[in-house]
Design brief:
single chain; about 450 residues; alpha/beta; 15-stranded parallel β-sheet; three-stranded parallel β-sheet; about 25% strand
Length: about 450
């Protein structure tokens, strides 16, 4: 049985183990606490006298659905003159317009660098106008916020990242609000817009912008309510992502710095003349992507009439001389066009989308990428159609540098039909002796 002295020694050793973290400098402990939500950080005050007010020196405040009394208390007791990051995620029942404005104001007054404001309901959080003249902001994320810009110039001299998600601008000047906001961001490099915009023109102009993501959520209503024109004046842009692109026209200046693009273009219905014009505008925009090295292009929402118009009414003169990776979702008739225009293509991912089966037509001349550069091909979601076998055979036979072809087939295919097709593919002659052919189940 342990003696009293031995038991006392064990207790002292346990206390020593527990207290080791307390021996760290205040700055190190505050850095550790900065990884916790503020509510958890405040709870450490019960650990002892040393810990009582350490949380008040943590430069990051993260409120997630806390009650307003708690938030008020933390802000009033917080000791830091500079807030590195302020995160505020609210529920609707915390609605208090003046209270929310006061919290954001407190962050601005303490030279906040990174500000994340999120409403977790249909309630649009109001914002103080002086937020848009904050000289210390580096990153601003607004989710479900109501933006009323000041009548004086916006000035955010250090803002590098701006994310606008489900943001509602002041109704009276909605179409001019975004240009007004961007005009006051002289060093902006990253912009994300994800919301429903029902005004005629969406204009993005910034000489410093490098990364741009736009995803529109178009609700119900007349087609005339849909934003019709996207204007891009972004000469420094390197990464562009457009999702659910319902714009009838996309105007842009030169995008010579563009490296990577992820574009989902939607179809537009109308009479023959309208479709003809629409097709020309679509080709002109795709042509402006000519300098990219990586292109993900989704044309699955193109209807048969649009596809026919694009492929037959207009000559295809574009060239993607830098393109090394292409992820294309489209009618199979687009495939030879891109193969012919991308001489240095190394990786091809192709997902066929069609309303009805079309015949495969080989390119009139052998694409240069097949002869020397194309190394990896992934064919997604085949359905056992004859024309699918034809373009797989064409690629496998003529790609002389091919290292791997991966064919994904739908689980819904009948086992006998899919087995026969896969057997035929596996027996095809290969242009490259080093080529490996793999078959996988498609996930969708």
């Amino acid at each position: 049985m342990a003696t009293t002295e031995q038991r006392g020694g064990r207790k002292r050793r346990k206390r020593e183990k527990i207290d080791r973290i307390s021996d760290l400098p205040d700055s190190v402990i505050c850095h550790i606490l900065s990884f916790l939500p503020t509510k958890s950080s405040v709870r450490t005050s019960i650990l002892g006298q040393r810990w009582r007010f350490l949380w008040a020196y943590v430069p990051i405040l993260y409120f997630h659905r806390e009650k307003k009394e708690f938030i008020n208390g933390v802000i009033s007791l917080h000791k830091m003159h500079t807030i590195s990051t302020f995160r505020l995620l609210l529920r609707k029942k915390h609605y208090d317009k003046h209270q929310h404005i006061a919290w954001v104001t407190a962050a601005v007054n303490r030279n906040v660098r990174n500000l994340y404001l999120v409403s977790l309901s249909n309630y649009y959080m109001p914002l103080p106008q002086h937020l848009f003249t904050c000289k210390t902001l580096v990153e601003l994320v607004l989710n479900s916020c109501h933006v009323t810009l000041p009548s004086c110039p916006v000035y955010l001299p250090r803002l590098e990242k701006l994310h606008l998600i489900s943001v509602r601008f002041e109704a009276d000047n909605e179409s001019s609000s975004l240009p007004h906001l961007l005009s006051g961001c002289p060093v902006l490099e990253e912009l994300e817009i994800e919301c429903s915009l029902n005004f005629f023109t969406l204009s993005v102009s910034s000489p410093t912008l490098k990364r741009l993501r736009i995803a529109l959520e178009v609700g119900g209503g007349d087609d005339d309510d849909v934003t019709k024109l996207l204007e891009l004046n972004t000469p420094s842009l390197t990464h562009l992502q457009l999702g659910n692109c319902f714009f009838r026209n996309i105007k842009s200046g030169a995008m010579t710095s563009l490296i990577e693009s992820d574009i989902s273009l939607c179809s537009y219905e109308g009479d023959e003349e309208e479709i003809f014009v629409y097709s020309r505008l679509r080709l002109e925009f795709i042509d402006r992507l000519c300098n990219v090295k990586s292109l993900e292009l989704d044309l699955s929402r193109f209807t048969g009439r649009i596809v026919d118009s694009v492929l037959s009414a207009w000559s295809w003169t574009m060239s993607f001389h830098n393109l090394t990776k292409l992820d294309l979702t489209a009618d199979c008739r687009f495939l030879p066009k891109f193969l012919e225009s991308a001489d240095n293509l190394e990786i091809l991912i192709f997902t066929e989308f069609y309303e009805e089966s079309k015949s495969w037509t080989e390119p009139p001349q052998m694409p240069k990428c097949l002869l020397s550069h194309l190394r990896i091909i992934k064919i997604a979601r085949i359905r056992g159609k004859k024309h699918e076998f034809e373009y797989i055979r064409y690629l496998l036979t003529n790609a002389l540098a091919l290292e791997r072809m991966e064919v994904a087939y739908l689980r819904l295919l009948d086992s006998e039909g899919s087995s026969n097709m896969l057997d035929e593919i596996s027996r095809l002659r290969r242009g490259s002796n080093a080529c490996e052919v793999a078959f996988v189940h498609s996930r969708y």
